[in-house]
Specification:
five-stranded parallel sheet, Rossmann fold, about 300 residues, globular, about 50% helix, 8 helices, two-stranded antiparallel ribbon
């Protein structure tokens, strides 16, 4: 019996030594992996434009400015002084239902502004990932030809958190293939507008009530802003932080013009009448800074 106990003890000790050794290997492997992650090269920021790139960008902007000036519009990304008025400018707004929210707010505030003609072509339930329903890169051309815009404002994405059929196969939302195609579709919109002699403003999506939906919208903001950054004459205006509370969270109510007012709809996505005006006031203000002009508008609504 004592001999059997000694044998059992030896077996247990051997097993314990083996497990400890294995644990050491796993621990060492995890430590090495963690160290490799910590020491991995960090994504580099965009490099400073070369003189050639800067001259190409200036040439592209100068070409747009020439078209603008010929029509009497004072929008100018290169101006060193601020024009006293926007002049005579046509503005085309495209996008989805949030694009309509923005457009309605802008329409109210710019309705009596001399020289500004606002054309609204946003369409609910549309986007860039559902071209089978509404193909924006194909639709925008006729809108540009008809309105001859000096500025194209884009706001869309609330319907784009869905897979895409690319070359006969399904590309998952936020996959590498999906992201590349989405940016390509956004670029088509931007380039058609720029090639017509118009500037482009892409208005980013705001914070959403649902954390899941908000995470999808953050992906779309990243894709659209990336496309914008690659095209001279296009500017991305983020709205996420502006529409959030001081903790960066969604808010349905906010103090506007001295009163606590509802700014977002019950669906946690769209804007109320007041919210539309707040968004429009913000975008118009940004436009003045971007294009170096003063624009008179009525009914401004600002957060206190």
């Amino acid at each position: 019996m004592n001999r059997d106990n000694r044998r059992l003890r030896i077996v247990l000790i051997a097993a314990l030594v083996f497990l400890m050794g294995t644990g050491y290997i796993f621990t060492s492997a995890n430590a090495a992996l963690n160290e490799s992650i910590i020491n991995a090269p960090k994504p580099s920021k965009s490099s400073t434009p070369t003189p050639t790139q800067e001259s190409q960008e200036t040439a592209a902007l100068s070409a747009i400015n020439k078209v603008q000036k010929s029509k009497g519009c004072n929008f100018d990304l290169l101006a060193e002084t601020v024009a006293s008025s926007a002049g005579t400018c046509n503005i085309l707004v495209v996008g989805d239902s949030l694009g309509n929210n923005l457009a309605y707010g802008m329409q109210r505030q710019l309705d009596k502004t001399s020289g500004i003609d606002l054309v609204i072509k946003s369409k609910s339930s549309t986007g860039l990932s559902n071209s089978w329903f509404y193909n924006w890169p194909k639709k925008i051309g006729p809108f540009i030809n008809a309105s001859d815009p000096d500025l194209v404002i884009v706001m869309l994405g609330t319907n784009d958190h869905q897979n895409m059929n690319i070359d006969g196969s399904v590309a998952q939302f936020d996959s590498k293939k999906w992201n590349a195609r989405y940016e390509a579709e956004a670029t088509k919109l931007i380039k058609q507008s720029l090639d017509s002699g118009a500037y482009v403003i892409w208005v980013g999506l705001p914070v959403m009530q649902s954390s899941y939906f908000a995470s999808y919208m953050a992906v779309l903001n990243e894709r659209s802003s990336t496309a914008v950054s690659q095209n001279s004459g296009a500017t991305f205006i983020p709205t996420w932080d502006y529409m959030a509370d001081n903790k960066g969270k969604y808010r349905e109510w906010a103090k506007v013009n001295g009163r606590n007012q509802k700014i977002r709809g019950t669906d946690g996505i769209h804007f109320t009448w007041v919210g539309q005006n707040v968004l429009a006031t913000y975008v118009i203000s940004q436009m003045q800074d971007i294009f170096n002009v003063k624009m008179k508008s009525k009914g401004k609504m600002l957060f206190d």
